[in-house]
Write a structure and sequence with these properties.
The protein has 862 residues and is of the alpha/beta class. The protein is 26% helix and 22% strand. It has a 6-stranded mixed beta sheet with strand order 9-24-23-22-10-11, sandwiched between helices. Strands 13-12-15-20-17-18 form a 6-stranded antiparallel beta sheet, with no helix packed on it. The protein has a 5-stranded parallel beta sheet with strand order 1-2-3-5-8. The chain is globular. The chain binds beta-D-glucopyranose (BGC).
Length: 862
């Protein structure tokens, strides 16, 4: 195969070249090397299903013994399928996922997940998919374990940042080009987590109990589009249960819907250790147990087959699916499609300047300006002699959230370095993290006398402990302690603390259920909330109020899961948390950026997170805003955080989501007006957690679940997720879904909707959008459909179309939306099918779920 380099800039021009690639692609012009990339895509594109593939797969299956077949039902070495040497099938390599290729070394880290959704850009979704596919190929990866498309039902769900949005149409629309992009590079995309992984707390035991209509209208459309439109070749089942059955054993989801109704012909794999039963998983659709066959193995399956509990044909079908995919992608040498070229010959580069431009594009398109009083932004770089960049998220770069999606980024650009590089040496850039680190707090906590540390054998704090005294509780995490402790211990710390001044204090700790350790903290015998089953701070952090001179008794019960000790505990007086230097540099700067929000340590897979910002950040923002009225707050995180303490005191707020490795560069370009912000919220930004649509239905009623017991979460918020709730109730969140400011203004006019139309469609709706401001910018025209005459209750409005467009100042462009039958349908519980109720519909167009200046009626006939 001819080598087609992906790096299209010569070394000398690299730095500038990659930036201009980014800008060129934003303008709709494809990146350099187009011809080369097209050739590559052709070479890599999988073959479609065909009778020839089917007969070859059947022939290969015929050559396998039953034992060899069973071998293929489980993974190996963490990230591989197993090989079948007798037919030349090598083991196939996998990697996570949505925001970069996580495994097998450093990689380009992109604006993925919720940041991708904030771009509202199908072209970027395609380009992201292609880049991820290329990155995967360059690492010899055959299965990319993404995208994740679960609905952002609650702002505290730990993996929202990895997923897309709260809206099924937006998810379904973006997932198609994304998957097509990945698969066009000869890499199998794996849409996940099927289905209803909308929470992280107790994720192995939680049952998402949902009614049929809500399932169909809200939670399944993105999976359906992935299968039916994008022809995704792998699906990953979720950890959780759905209506009382584990996803990996859920016949209704896996057999009736996915493989039956949607005709999925690819491979259904489990999430890692998400298989819980041999016969149920085998019979109810699971094809591959990852990462190893604890249940789908010969020892368990052979007797089940002998007893007639599992049919041989069921096993054959699973293996056929793997063979079919392997043949279509050329993972298995065959005359139909030669094996994919060996890594050295691929045109994909592990380090790619072109991909860096894609990462910049994603960050530029996703950063969302939520508030801009004054307007303070854009800042005039000629007026800025000194700028202060403050906050825990200013440096190092916060590229992604925590867990299996976290990518070790190449050259990540922090907000601090992005701003400093943009401004150059003539501007003074002052930096301070603003808050102490966690371990600084542990070390600086002055206990009244020594703390006793009692270590008990076993995990029950029973028997005679080994006693020791310590001055501080600050055992730093030790590397390499990933094996469970073979000799379980329980450790009780006991100390006394005296509050010098009256006010709010933070009790801060490490060790959490996050990594399997467990820590309970008691103040004067009262237990502070356990952070696993409820919305809570990670690492654990609890505010308490103390009187001047008050003494408290603090007990920390710690159950280490690993051989080493990783516990830490400290108490900090909130008014003293913010560093003096941060306040000083803010006061003397011409403008200040406070980089706040979540990070991979405070938001990630395996636990939900708090709606409140991590400890100390409210106080930091308040203090900096008091020191400098020209303060811009940036937030990282999946969408939503409590801003009530300070929002009315800061003129500007930008949501960065997790912007990938080029976030700092994009932020600087936006702050100084080189690029007008264009991101739009893909998730409603609530005022408070209690205010959010899912609040009353998100956690199971009653106490924290017993370990291992099934917890039922009833999705009684039904269809009213996110903006569907707010608009149906006629109330207003802090910032609505679809909202985002620009440096220019747009005017919508000339809405044309036919008076009558058949629901069979396609129905054309047109509108003109004009840039009435003085700078170029991008706008997302959003179309919402209302069905006021429906015989069933429907959300007040639902997104059914969107178009992103770029406009020069004064320019007007027409936008064409195409509606089809699904645009008007609801899921009918009687016929168990999509149904249109003919009659009056209202079409609304605007640039957020709440700001729809144009509307028109349409009568839809059957
Ligand atoms: C995650 C999956 C991921 C897998 C492999 C699991 O913990 O839930 O999304 O693909 O690990 O890393």
């Amino acid at each position: 195969m001819k080598h087609t380099p992906r790096i299209c800039a010569s070394a000398e021009h690299r730095t500038e070249a990659w930036r201009s690639i980014g800008r060129a692609t934003l303008g709709g012009i494809a990146a350099c090397g187009l011809a080369g990339l097209a050739a590559l895509a052709q070479a890599a594109t999988p073959l479609p299903d065909s009778p020839a593939i089917e007969s070859e797969a059947a022939a290969l299956l015929g050559r396998l013994t039953l034992n060899e077949e069973l071998e293929l039902l489980g993974g190996v070495d963490g990230m591989y399928t197993r090989a079948a040497p007798s037919i030349g099938l090598l083991r196939l390599k996998m990697s996570d996922a949505s925001a970069g290729v996580r495994n097998w070394g450093p990689s380009t880290s992109y604006a993925g997940g919720v940041a991708l959704a904030a771009t509202w850009d199908r072209d970027y979704a395609r380009q992201l998919g292609e880049s991820l596919g290329g990155d995967a190929r360059a690492r010899g990866v055959q299965f990319l374990l993404g995208p994740g498309v679960n609905i952002a039902r609650s702002p505290v769900a730990g993996r929202n940042f990895e997923y897309l949005s709260e809206d099924p149409f937006l998810n379904a629309t973006l997932v198609v080009p994304y998957i097509e992009g990945v698969q066009s590079r000869g890499v199998v995309a794996t849409v996940k987590h099927f289905a209803l992984n909308n929470q992280e707390f107790d994720r192995h035991n939680v049952s998402a109990d949902v009614d049929e209509r809500t399932l169909r209208e809200i939670y399944l459309p993105a999976f359906e589009a992935a299968v039916r439109e994008a022809h995704v070749d792998a699906v990953m089942n979720a950890y959780n249960l759905v209506n009382g059955e584990h996803a990996t054993e859920n016949a209704s989801l896996n057999l009736a819907i996915l493989k039956g109704e949607w005709g999925f012909t690819g491979l259904l794999m489990s999430d890692w250790d998400a298989t819980y039963d041999t016969v149920a998983a085998a019979n109810h659709g699971l094809d591959l147990e990852m990462p190893s066959p604890r249940f789908l193995n010969a020892a368990a399956l052979l007797p089940a087959i002998d007893k007639g509990l599992v049919q041989r044909a069921t096993i054959d079908d699973k293996v056929l699916r793997l063979l079919r995919v392997a043949l279509r992608y050329g993972f298995l040498p065959s005359p139909l499609k030669p094996a994919a070229p060996a890594r050295i010959e691929t045109a994909d580069s592990a380090y790619s300047i072109a991909d860096r431009a894609v990462a910049l594009r994603g960050a530029l398109e996703s950063l969302t300006l939520l508030k801009n009083d004054g307007p303070l932004l854009p800042l005039d770089r000629n007026q800025i002699k000194t700028i202060a960049v403050i906050g825990p998220n200013a440096y190092p770069a916060v590229t992604g959230g925590g867990g299996s999606s976290f990518t070790q980024a190449f050259d990540p650009v922090s907000s601090l370095s992005g701003i400093a590089e943009f401004l150059g040496p003539s501007v003074r850039v002052l930096y301070d993290p603003g808050l102490p680190g966690l371990y600084d707090v542990f070390r600086d906590t002055h206990w009244l006398g020594p703390v006793t540390m009692a270590t008990y054998r076993g995990d029950h704090f029973g028997g005679t402990p080994r006693l020791a005294t310590v001055n501080t509780i600050d055992n730093a995490p030790q590397e390499g302690l990933s094996e469970p402790d073979p000799n379980p211990r329980s450790i009780r710390y006991h100390g006394r603390y005296r509050a010098g001044l009256a006010g709010r204090y933070w009790v801060l700790a490490t060790a959490s259920a996050w990594d399997g350790d467990h820590l309970d903290v008691f103040v004067d015998g009262r237990r502070l909330a356990v952070p696993i089953h409820v919305e809570a701070q990670i690492p654990p952090a609890w505010p308490i109020t103390l009187a001047a001179g008050q003494e408290i008794d603090v007990v920390a019960d710690y159950l280490p899961r690993f051989a080493g000790v990783r516990s830490g505990l400290g108490i900090a007086y909130e008014p003293n948390l913010v560093t003096a230097r941060a306040k000083q540099i803010a006061a003397l700067a011409d403008a200040t950026v406070v980089a706040a929000g979540f990070t991979k340590d405070t938001e990630g897979e395996g636990a939900d997170r708090s709606f409140a910002l991590p400890w100390g950040q409210d106080a930091l923002i308040e203090a900096i805003a008091a020191a400098n009225p020209r303060t811009i707050v940036t937030l990282t995180g999946g969408v939503g955080a409590d801003t009530r303490a300070w929002l009315d005191r800061v003129p500007a707020l930008i949501d960065l989501y997790y912007p990938g490795q080029e976030g700092g560069t994009a932020l600087a370009e936006i702050l100084f007006g080189q690029h007008a912000p264009e991101g739009k919220l893909p998730v409603t930004f609530d005022r408070s957690w209690e205010d959010s649509a899912s609040y009353r239905y998100y956690y199971p009623a009653g106490d924290a679940p017993r370990p291992g017991a099934i917890t039922h979460v009833r999705y009684d918020d039904g269809l009213l997720v996110g903006y569907r709730y707010w608009t149906s109730k006629g109330r207003h969140p802090l910032f609505p879904f679809g909202f985002g400011l620009s440096y220019t203004r747009f005017k919508f006019s000339n809405l044309k909707v036919p008076t009558y139309a058949s629901s069979r469609g396609p129905i054309e709706v047109t509108v003109d959008v004009e840039n009435t401001g003085t700078v170029a910018g991008a706008e997302v025209a959003q179309l919402y459909v209302s069905d006021p005459s429906a015989p069933v209750e429907r959300p007040e409005r639902e997104l059914k179309g969107f178009v992103k467009l770029r406009l020069e100042p004064g320019e007007t462009k027409p936008v064409v939306f195409s509606l089809d039958r699904r645009s008007f349908s609801y899921w009918d519980m009687n016929s168990h099918a999509w149904t249109v109720a003919p009659g009056k519909f209202v079409i609304r167009v605007g640039d957020s779920s709440e700001d729809t200046p144009l509307s028109a009626e349409l009568r839809v006939t059957d």
